[in-house]
């Protein structure tokens, strides 16, 4: 049995072809729980015997009514019918998805407004249609402009007394407009739609169905005749003015769902001001990128660079503006690659090339060594034609690009859903949304440069300044080692096996050195109690955290992950397992953070160790085309991402910023 939304109020038990129904209230009392347990005890011999003998007992429902079928197709006939089977280029066709329900059975409403006098059953699976991915089709199916059937009310007691629920019943049709391209080639084409529905009566719900329903359309030269079905009553509810709206550019409602640690909301980008609101959300996601582990190590570098010119307000703002332009430029470049290069599909795709990841690590490491002042590298004069120092316009611009590059392995809350939607739109929309992400990310640097007093207190000269640079250099070196190590892990990783984690000890060593160096130099430079206490705490924290990172990241962990392949995924579904699918990579620090906190939570681990739950991981460290395809199928282009599937392979939960309670609720709902 598969449910979405809150826990169902009716439990369906079954073995083989026998199903039994037990009512449950959404918030059961002690008496309700006792009745349910008693019913389970009485029914258990029947379930074990795999017989439809429930009719022998009077529990207020008819056992025979649920013993003759397995899924919803046994009570619902489906077909697809076109208003015209033959049409010319530039023509219009109405596609009717027809469901013919047995008497006494119904399916749940689609994405429409339910009348106020009818209730919605939150636990059931709603009727849905979607256009499957298809290339080179000479027509467009506008599922957002579908005409849905009339909603009826049926009286049922699902645990809260008799209530009239909103349903579809009888012979119904979902009418979807289709427009043929003016330059469509002559020929016969399949017209397909994905269809999801769940059949229920007033006592029991059957297994839901996901299927592809297909019809045939012949495109002929202008003037040719063909069979017309437009007089069929099934098309009476369709309003032909819809085609005029489509051709005039009117947009169908397009809702994007956001979920940030349990705070969920939606944005209709087709509504008034909806697209502007999406741009604001995307910009906020870009702003939050600065708080991710990927970007944090380089922020102090820019603060120190701005503090050096804080006395010259005009120059300070010019340098900050130049860096901001670099950030926005890179995000627009990334959007252009996704919009224009078919093989470039993911924001973090650059880091899936180990050589790129290693190169980024080397650049960071060299910057770190130079910043710490360990030694100076003299390059040939031609290398200084491009200034990369913070106090030059070109250097600030390049530093902005590097900061944006470092942000791509991480996904900030709100950003993933906005970017995923943008990649399905026109190149212009992609560039605008990605520019918004870049603008949001650049805002803090622009503010710091506009108000230089915010960075003037940073020590600029003297021994204290040198210690700060050295400690920050060592921490930045740890970041460089991390990228070099994750790149090497990508080169040596074996398909469907975990990558090497040895490099984390070198990361931990650099971080530990930074903490210990701060402790030593603090006691050498000052005898004042307050600075010694403060910096001893800071140095001790850095040292302890670095050691813990080394221990945690190299440990096996409490979860026995199954590494994803399409075959393993299909096998888990065939074995009736709940799948918790974690998208991750060695270069994704956000992923590591969520794994070490949320997924390592004691209660979450206990659920992932259950025999009927499969914790599955897709590691995108190296080349993983199957994993990348699954990410696109999940409707995202960024990681981290966690997706929970029920026993039928239906997506129950998806988020890039989640809490332990959300994971636990999703697993419970998927059962």
Question: If you had to describe this structure to a student in words, what would you say it looks like?
Answer:
By secondary structure, this protein is α+β, with helices and mostly antiparallel strands. The protein has 4 domains: 10-66, no CATH class; 72-249, Sandwich (Immunoglobulin-like); 266-492, no CATH class; 562-670, Glutaredoxin. It has helices at residues 30-49, 241-247, 274-289, 299-307, 313-340, 354-372, 393-407, 415-422, 427-450, 462-492, 503-525, 529-554, 566-574, 589-597, 602-608, 625-633, 660-670, and strands spanning 10-15, 18-23, 76-82, 86-87, 92-101, 106-107, 128-130, 139-141, 152-157, 162-169, 171-180, 187-197, 199-200, 209-219, 255-260, 263-268, 562-563, 578-584, 613-619, 641-645, 651-655. The strands form 6 sheets. It has a 5-stranded mixed sheet, sandwiched between helices. The protein has a 4-stranded antiparallel sheet with strand order 3-5-11-8, with no helix packed on it. A 4-stranded mixed sheet has the order 4-14-12-7, with no helix packed on it. A hairpin with a 4-residue loop joins strand 9 and strand 10. The longest helix is centred in the last third of the chain and has 31 residues, at 462-492. The protein is elongated.
